[in-house]
Amino acid sequence: MSTIFEFSTIKQIGAVLIAVVIVLAAGTVVGQAPALFGADVTTDPEASIEFPDQSGDGTSVTVDTVSLSDGGFVVVTNGGDVVGVSDYLESGTHENVTVEQRDDEDLEMLGQLTATALQDTTDTGTFVSEADAAEDEDLDEHDRPYSDGGYPVSDTATVTMSERPDEGESSTSFVVESVDAPESVTANGSVDITTEIRNPNEFDDRQHVDFRLDGQLVERQVLSLDADETRELNVTISLDDVEPGDHIYGIYTTDDGALGELTVEPDDAGVTVLEAESDRVVADATLTTDGFLAVEAAGNDTDTDADTDADADADNETDTDTENSTDTNTNPQILGTSDSLEAGDHENVTIALEEPLEDGETISVVVYEGSVDDVENASAYSVGDERIEETVVVGEDLGGDGTGDSESDDETEADEESDGTESEDTDETGDDGAETSDE
């Protein structure tokens, strides 16, 4: 072999090696291109879902597992119609996800159903369908499914109606052993119900337990019990929209249940005015929901002659208060508000008035529900058609706790020195004396 041939071969091998190095370097640069140009390297959202065949009562289904990389929802459809949507699910894996039938759907959750994993594309925390987005001008997007290979991540199951056992046959249904609930509660509050549920079978099982009020489903819990296990369940039912009166509640399993009667009493929300001065009002109040107290203008023409018979004055003031109360309900003018108050009892709540009032003006102290920081959207609290309020006259002695003991003693002595017809004059004298003392 000649030296020239050997040198030529070496040159060819060297050229090949250089070419390989260049290609590898170029590939490295290309792979780093997004980072070099400031772009984030992202991965597509991923999801998986397992929806097995099952039996049920047509009002809910259970998804065994669902994994969502970016959070979202499980949407159950029947022939293209959405029949159920889960609550918002955080990113991660979730087991035994119960999907309830939608309130606005008549279709039962029976037959061949498809459960699909959807992203919270709209970032609202609430499922937005394509139909919802089309109907709402403020929505320009709807939630979209996770995809795998261009197809939605979903699973299909056949859901059949749970069969009731024939007469004489034993049932595998969980049994309602006992129920504990109060006989009466206050309207606009809540009621706590405790029940014991037993699995009478010789095998572990999982079934749902329904809590209903007047036949309406208010909560459903999915319960897993070992063979012959008994467990206590608790539920709190809101009574915000429940009218006072007698109501029937029920706890139901597949083939068993228990009923009870619940009396809803009118709530005890109330307000008692202790002082009504020109610059402030002091009151005690009981609230059954978070809110505040507000002073409303109730009319001004309440002055009466001090020399008029006391009984006639009382009648006139009653008529005036009634007329003013009607005016307040029509066009309330808020003169001042308290600080925010939580539900419960409150004593000596002080309400500073925005503008000073004169003695003799009539005002109403009203219980409001809502935020004191958003008075325009708050509303007067009422039981039925009756607002919780008290109407008083500014400057009148209300005998409240806010009045000092010495002042009460002075008034008592003055009453002893005067007869009943001069009681108003005595009060006026006391007021004049107080003003003189202040000056």
TrEMBL record:
InterPro entries: Slg1/2_DUF7282. It comes from Natronoglomus mannanivorans. It comes from the Archaea. Pfam families: DUF7282. Residues 131-157, 298-345, 382-439 are annotated as: Disordered. This is DUF4179 domain-containing protein. The lineage of its organism: Archaea, Methanobacteriati, Methanobacteriota, Stenosarchaea group, Halobacteria. Residues 47-160, 325-376 form the DUF7282 domain. Residues 302-324, 404-439 have a biased composition (Acidic residues).
